[in-house]
Design goal:
Arc Repressor Mutant, subunit A; 3-stranded antiparallel β-sheet; 455 residues; alpha+beta; 15 helices
Length: 455
Amino acid sequence: MTPRYRFEEFTVSTARRTVLRAGREVPLIPRYFDLLVLLIEQRQRAVERGEILDAVWRDVVVSDGALSQAVRTLRRALGDTAREPRFIRTVSRHGYRFVHADVVEETEEAPAPPAAVPAAPPAAGDPFVPALRLLLDDDPVAGARTTDDARLEAAASLHLLGTSEALARIDRRPGHERARALLREARWDIAGAGPVPILGQPGWPRAFAFLVALRLRRAARIAAARLGGAAAGGAVAGALAGFAGGLLLQNGPGAGAPAGLPTTLALLGIAAGGVGAAGVGAGLAFAEAVARSMRGVALAVCGALAGGATGVTIRLVIRGFLAGMFGQDVPAIGGGFEGIAIGAAAGLGYALSTPRPHGGGMATPRGLARIGAALVAGVLCATAGAAVCRLGGNLAGTSLNVLAHAYSGSRVGLAPLARILGEADAGPLTRTVSGGLEGLFFGAGLVTGLTRRPR
């Protein structure tokens, strides 16, 4: 039987996932309910922040403020305070502990009575005014000292009072753009909060810019870690693909490549894979930091844009290097079109294979789920790579073949692979296989690194 906990006027039902206060339901989003249950279950000790994040946010990685915001929301729901905690105490530089002494634990042997609709507490004066002043910066001196967390707390209070009424009160007032952005962000933390549209509303470009900036500030450290992980994953994948390709070109039918080719191509793979994955990974990290309601579209679009920009940059650098060193331009090497295709495929594969985090955060699947995400992204990138090369585009392998033909006497090219596939030279089939294999390695490596859970 699942347990039920009672303390003071509260009843926490783990079977029904409800919190009742004197018979009336206290609305909580699922992760916050899980946090409350964890703290009650472990009430004999303080629970470390890392342990909480692993248990409650185990499938996503969230910003430093997410846990603090969750605890503030729980305290508000329980009528608790940080200064004089009756239920949840902050243990400095450690975590949190549920400190109420009289907790009754019992089994849920009979159905609980239906929860009543929560009644609105009586308000002294207008309860909207203090929170609205924070959001709208009506007090310039206090507003200059107000943090994002304090404003989000005020926005959460307004959602509890009534989302539609709060939106009506900020409409077209000075500072309404930032106030709308804060209300939009806070709605994810409040169960039952109403919709907060941005697009098409008065001043929506500024509101959207405020929202993006707010989310980036709160997710900057995580996004940077994700970018580093993506670059490392792409570099490892590039090294493996380059070394394997070097062995094939060195030992395939009619091969005459130099002995050090596998090592050389592995080093080139590290550079190409690391830079490419860093570019696409930056786009995916940005998309996940700023997008919640349209996560899949944002990942595909941002992956495509970042991939295209990275491809153009790499193309310009390589062409400039070749022209400066050898006085010869090779315009046929890959660039923006190829980057757009691979970046979009990586973003789409990542979006399809990872759950949409509710309430923010970036997906970090574990175990078989992480392997599955890497494979899905790899397969979609392989499909994109094969199509790109089939249509005349060039990834790293086919660009290398172009360079081999541009420089007389070169013994490096895709001819050995072509002979294995029954072609005299790198024809459509060879190009398709080369692009598909390269895309597979890249997509799998990128997502493996991107989903690494930072500590």
